[in-house]
Amino acid sequence: MRRSPQRSGHEGTKFVLVMAMEKCSYDPREDFRESMVEMIIANRIQEPKDLCSLLNYYISMNSEEYHGIILEIFHEVCTHLFLFRKCN
């Protein structure tokens, strides 16, 4: 699940180019978590529309069997990165 993020020079909208790779995982939850955190931080994603785009990317690039895990992990990551940060 290693990805090579790149941002465009356009202001206001972030375009993230991602290279998807097939990966066999013993712990998909942790791999998704690590990947999402890395993508959000590396690309400085904070806007809801950009977060939705990232979520849609993960859903579209992974088989249906992982969609529930992706939604759970995305919620956990966003809660940790954004909600807890605002409370501190």
From TrEMBL:
GO terms, biological process: negative regulation of DNA-templated transcription
Broad class of the protein's primary localization: nucleus
Record keywords, A-Z: Nucleus, Repressor, Transcription, Transcription regulation
GO cellular component terms listed in the entry, alphabetical order: nucleus
Function: Transcriptional repressor that regulates multiple aspects of plant growth and development.
PANTHER family, per the entry: TRANSCRIPTION REPRESSOR OFP7-RELATED, TRANSCRIPTION REPRESSOR-RELATED
NCBIfam families in the record: A_thal_3678 (TIGR01568)
Protein name: Transcription repressor
Organism: Carya illinoinensis
